[in-house]
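**Protein record**
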Amino acid sequence: MANSGNTAGSTDAVILVGGQGTRLRPLTLSAPKPMLPTAGLPFLQHLLARIADAGITHVVLGTSYKAEVFEEHFGDGSDLGLELEYVTEDEALGTGGGIRNVLPKLRADTVLVFNGDVLGGTDLGGVLETHHTSGADVTLHLVRVSDPRAFGCVPTDANGRVTAFLEKTQDPPTDQINAGCYVFRREYIEKIPAGRPVSVERETFPSLLAEGAHIQGHVDVSYWRDMGTPEDFVRGSADLVRGIAPSPALPGQRGESLVHPGAGVAPGALLIGGTVVGRGAEVGAGARLDGAILFDGARVEAGATVERSIIGFGARIGPRALVRDAVIGDGANVGARCELLRGARIWPGVDIPDGGIRFSTDV
């Protein structure tokens, strides 16, 4: 193709957003994870803004769980300067199967694929440049992490070529891990078996390597976080608010908190640690919010403390309650002086009476 040079305009983007977000329940009972508010915008919007920023305009979303929500919100993508298309999986096809499933919508010879769970800051133009200059069939974005034991790792040789795909181990030979962003030559997507579940990490990449395909690594130390757990979701959102994680979707000043128009914050409330207060949310006098995420319409009453926790749409935290490292579902009510700690999850609409759950004796 004449336009198969390393211009972003001759590149399609694919985002895999089919997961059920089970680790973030109960929040994902009502919305798919990529649509959860993150620094006040649907999580996916930060990635779409990065793609647009890189000059790529044609994006295909591979959806499954609550598929209709994406198109209802983003439409044809014109508001973001993109052309968005949607492909829905009737059955879960895994990462490789999800990529293969969108093939009929792809137009370009170069396809940039994203795992929709990742908050990242890598230079997408740099990843594409590596792919084209190395002449690779497939290029993987690899990120260096301080503790690679929780991940499979991906060693590369002196020229940056991937030499193996290794499972999780207590003694990893490299600190490079798969960052969930790949560049494919289109013909290598065509090789993925159609109509059945395929794992790109466990099946496609190892078999391509065995066949002698050129798989290149693009290694960097850019911001990277898998947003799959409540702890990571809270930290990623806070990093966006504080400017630690980059996002072209968030112009303007960064700071310790982000308060949306229409929210009410009483005098004497303390908002720190990258806290987000959603539209129509209310924070009472003397409340302390540290790394808290309040979805739209949530209420935190006077004197309550919320730390590193997510408060769902329209949920209420009563006076002098303590919520730490917890997830509170939409519309739930946590009564006065309750204490919810260490991974507590309250399902939507649940009503906990005043003082109903505590970890310490009453004071």
